[in-house]
Amino acid sequence: MDIGGLLTTAASLMLTGMVGVFIFLSILISAVLLMSKLLGRFENSASSVPVRTAKLQPQQGVPPTHIAAISAAIAQFRNKQQ
């Protein structure tokens, strides 16, 4: 093939890809904006419903059972090394 034909094919392929990506991203942005507007309407009605939150107590440190398991594993490893 001659170089001109290859360049023309490459340019048309590049243009087709860029147009395809532009159209896809335009549709994606439109869909996100539409969903945002739709959910904005429902947000006001959902805020009147009280929401319960579970009270989690913060844990301090590592549980004793984990410490015991880690200590046993370290002791077993050291015994095998000797």
TrEMBL record:
Q: Where are the bilayer-spanning segments?
A: 12-35
Organism in which the protein naturally occurs: Pseudoalteromonas lipolytica
Q: Which reaction does it catalyse?
A: oxaloacetate + 2 Na(+)(in) + H(+) = pyruvate + 2 Na(+)(out) + CO2
Localization terms from the record: Cell membrane
Membrane topology per the entry is: Single-pass membrane protein
HAMAP family per UniProt: OadG
Biological function: Catalyzes the decarboxylation of oxaloacetate coupled to Na(+) translocation.
Q: Kindly indicate whether the keyword Signal belongs to this entry.
A: no
Q: Which Pfam families match?
A: OAD_gamma
Q: Which Enzyme Commission numbers does its entry carry?
A: 7.2.4.2
Translocase recorded as keyword: yes
Q: What protein am I looking at? A: Probable oxaloacetate decarboxylase gamma chain
Name the enzyme group at the top EC level. translocase
Quaternary structure per UniProt? Heterotrimer of an alpha, a beta and a gamma subunit.
Instruction: Name the family.
Output: Belongs to the OadG family.
Name the coenzymes or cofactors required: Na(+)
> What are the UniProt keywords, alphabetically?
Cell membrane, Ion transport, Membrane, Sodium, Sodium transport, Translocase, Transmembrane, Transmembrane helix, Transport
InterPro entries membership = Na_pump_deCOase, OadG
